[in-house]
Design goal:
Layout lengths: L4 H18 L14 E8 L8 E5 L5 E11 L3 E8 L5 E7 L1 H13 L4 E7 L3 E8 L8 E4 L5 H22 L1
Antiparallel strand pairs: 1-3, 1-6, 2-3, 4-5, 5-8, 6-7
Length: about 170
């Protein structure tokens, strides 16, 4: 079997173009709009096949556990809010769409006692929180205390709402 150098260069050029186009940051977009992403991962048992990875989340002492790939993301969101609690306390409230709510309900029933690890990029990627699924989540909402300052949490929520609006606009 012979390969021409032109064919390899064509494949390489197509691969390089796809990688270049696909590597878009979540920083400021048109008009200085800062978008955020969110990926919610399920806790799993560690495996040797590379299907899970070990992560550390939270302040010292960090929680260490294994997670699978993302189960939910900003494409499943209807919106996000920053909820205020007692003095200095705040939490991020995520409201999922119908599909996201169904998935969250299934995961909360099937993986009761397991944790969700929440990863976000606003603009720098990091693990921002965990949530233990100790009950059925049937209302499509998730409330967690982020490992972030109040300003960072506000930026996360604002960026998520802008990302949701952009996704809805592109879907219409």
């Amino acid at each position: 079997m012979k390969f021409g150098i032109g064919r390899i260069n064509t494949y390489f050029t197509a691969l390089a173009a796809a990688l270049f186009i696909g590597c878009v940051s979540t920083g400021t977009g048109k008009g200085g709009v800062e978008l955020s992403t969110i990926r919610i991962h399920l806790e799993t048992n560690p495996d040797n096949l590379g299907m899970s990875r070990r992560i550390e989340v939270g302040p010292e002492p960090k929680q260490t556990f294994s997670v699978a790939g993302p189960a939910l993301g900003e494409m499943h969101l209807l919106g996000a809010q920053l909820w205020e609690g007692n003095a200095g306390e705040y939490a991020v409230h995520l409201q999922f769409d119908r599909q996201g709510a169904q998935m969250l309900e299934i995961y909360s029933m099937s993986y009761r006692g397991k944790r969700l690890a929440i990863f976000s990029q606003f603009p720098h990627p990091r693990w921002v929180g965990t949530f233990r699924m100790d009950r059925r989540i049937g209302d499509g909402t998730l409330l967690f205390r982020p490992d972030a300052t109040r300003d960072e949490a506000q930026r996360l929520v604002s960026g998520l709402n802008k990302a949701v609006a952009k996704i809805k606009k592109s879907g219409d």
